[in-house]
Structures are given as structure tokens and as C-alpha cells.
Known about the structure:
Elements: H1 2-16, H2 18-63
Helix pairs in contact: 1-2
Amino acid sequence: MKVLILFIAWLVLFVLCWPLALIALVALPLVWLLSIPFRVLGYVVEGLLAFLKALFFLPAKILR
């Protein structure tokens, strides 16, 4: 459903301003490729925070 909405929005943009739509069509894969390291970094930080949370709450779980 999300892809369909994105496609319809691109078609509307293509009708209104075709050069901008073609630039968006070329730029989208490049932006996606540039965002991969940041997503990986986000997963690493999320895992690290979950590990620290589990480490800090470990004494409470043991005493319970």
C-alpha cells in the first residue's frame, strides 16, 4: 500500500513538474544507499542500549 501511494504521488509530481520528478527518481536510490550506514548504526545503538538496560536490571531480577 505504501508503494502504491508513493507511486501515485510520483505520478502527480510528474504531471505537475516533470524535471523535478525525474530528479527525484534518480535521487531516491542514492539517498537510500547513503542511509544504509545510519540505519546499521541505529541498530547497533539500539542493541547496545538494550544490553545496558538488561545489565542494569540484572541485580533486580536476581533479587526478585
